Write the structure tokens for this entry.
Amino acid sequence: MGRPTYVGSSSSFGDKKVVALDSNSDAQLVSEDSGCIFVIDADVAASAAKIYYLPKASETSVGCTFKFIVDASPSNTIDIDRHADDDDNIFGCINSAEAGGEGASCDSTAQETVRFATGAVKGDSFSLTLVGIGTAKWWQLSGDANDAAHIAVAAS
């Protein structure tokens, strides 16, 4: 799996790192990337769907946070998945600017994947933060999309 490309940071804004996900291979994210803003180059999904894997929850400290932003409409889906060793552990919702204000939601059902659909547009984004008490940890999802169909959540 490839590693993300570091783009830059700004000490003026709390030392947030901006990282380009522009590799044509799937990638395993690591807890050391916490706080990063990942800008996903839609071209990574030009020929096939791409998957980025979250760190294993049991080996990651609560508070670990990642933000994902797509830079254009992808030709194929781009997924952010729970670690392969974790059970489905993503909870939360995506707000939508669509007329009805409806968005993708995983309610109280644990999910495996957050997906940028092929209809996603520049600026659609979401964050995942590892939260919990003791060994009961989960990724809390929060995000915004121009349309409810742009970002989806799915169980395994």
